[in-house]
Specification:
Largest sheet: 24 strands, mixed
Strand content: over 45%
Structural class: mainly beta
Order of helices and strands: HEEEEHEEEEEEEEEEEEEEEEEEEE
Shape: elongated
């Protein structure tokens, strides 16, 4: 029952955060855009947006909404903020700091709470440190060290470069058109990554993975969902404990696994290795014609390839060198394994 109440509360906060997009800000403070290099924002119940938009005047906006989704009058907001919240906005040197904190740590009726969201418009070369317990986080067009987290909302990341480190305990992740060092994790949602490059680490404990147009060293795993990936270059490690894996348009080294589904993988170009493990499912693998060291095992193994093969072919294994040997191909399937060549 306690868990249901918490989830209901987080859902209410998400609805409130969405409603804030159409509201007039309660407070707006102008900033000197060139001077701000660091942004630190903390709020207990609202969303946070930081945008390096060249078309916007540098500023911070504060949005205040009641927990029922309606916006009180400015007089009522001021009264409730003075009584129940600490709202602070300050600029010290090149750092902007904004925070909204409930004064009542105990014996607080959440139905009387306010959702306080922040939107910050600054120059592109800005680092961030952002935290909210009940809303989503949006980052756009920034270059620097970005660290951010939410306990109950989604993460939206677009056009970031630098060190990107984000966490959410209860929402989805969307990242696109970003590069360098990307490290994003959720405990309860899906992950969508598109058109990103660099060292990329993506993890979810309870959702699916959708990957497209990625290039670099990629590590993407889920404990409870399926995986779809297309047009991947570099080095891909991806796996799931509870779903199927469907990969196409790969030009990379590949290490993939599933404990609870099948694997379908199509490579247009080989990398340094291919490693596939489907402990209880089927494997369908399509490879380009090339020299390979084959080590393929399954309940039943079938292969359709031409070329010079030196080794052993049985109903449950293929071991040997194709076209003189080359890239190691290691496949272990709990069911049927089908190997074909482009």
């Amino acid at each position: 029952m306690k868990t249901r109440i918490i989830l209901f509360f987080l859902a209410c906060q998400s609805v409130v955060a969405l409603s804030q997009e159409k509201k007039t800000p309660y407070l707006t403070k102008s900033l000197s855009g060139d001077a701000i290099k660091h942004v630190s924002v903390t709020t207990s119940g609202g969303s946070i947006t930081v945008s390096g938009s060249p078309d916007e005047k540098p500023r911070i906006e504060v949005y205040v909404t009641a927990n029922n989704g309606f916006t009180p009058s400015n007089e009522e907001i001021k009264k409730r903020l003075d009584e129940d919240y600490d709202l602070n906005i300050s600029v010290n040197g090149d750092e902007l700091r904004a925070s909204a904190k409930n004064k009542h740590e105990h014996d607080w009726d959440w139905r009387k709470s306010l959702s306080i969201a922040f939107k910050v418009y600054v120059s592109k070369n800005v680092s961030t440190n952002l935290e909210t317990s009940g809303g989503s986080i949006h980052l756009d067009n920034l270059s620097g060290d970005e660290k951010f987290g939410t306990s109950g909302g989604s993460l939206h990341v677009e056009r970031l470069t630098g060190n990107i480190h984000g966490r959410t305990s209860g929402g989805s992740i969307t990242v696109s058109n970003s590069s360098d060092n990307i490290d994003l994790q959720t405990s309860g949602g899906s992950v969508h990554a598109d058109n990103c490059k660099g060292t990329i680490k993506l993890e979810t404990s309870g959702g699916s993975l959708h990957l497209s147009d990625l290039d670099g060293k990629i590590d993407a795993t889920t404990s409870g969902g399926s995986i779809q990936a297309n047009n991947i270059k570099g080095d891909l490690r991806t796996g799931t404990s509870g779903g199927s894996v469907n990969l196409s348009g790969l030009a990379c080294s590949l290490d993939t696994y599933t404990s609870g589904g099948s694997i379908n993988a199509e490579l247009s170009q080989l990398g340094k290795f291919v490693k596939i493990d489907a402990s209880s499912g089927h494997v369908n693998l399509r490879l380009p014609k090339s020299g390979m060291n084959l080590n393929v095992h399954g309940n039943r193994v079938t292969a359709d390839f031409s070329g010079n093969f030196d080794g052993t072919k049985d109903k449950d294994r293929i071991e040997g060198k194709l076209n003189g040997g080359g890239v190691p191909i290691d496949v272990n399937g709990g069911g049927r394994v089908t190997l074909t060549m482009n």
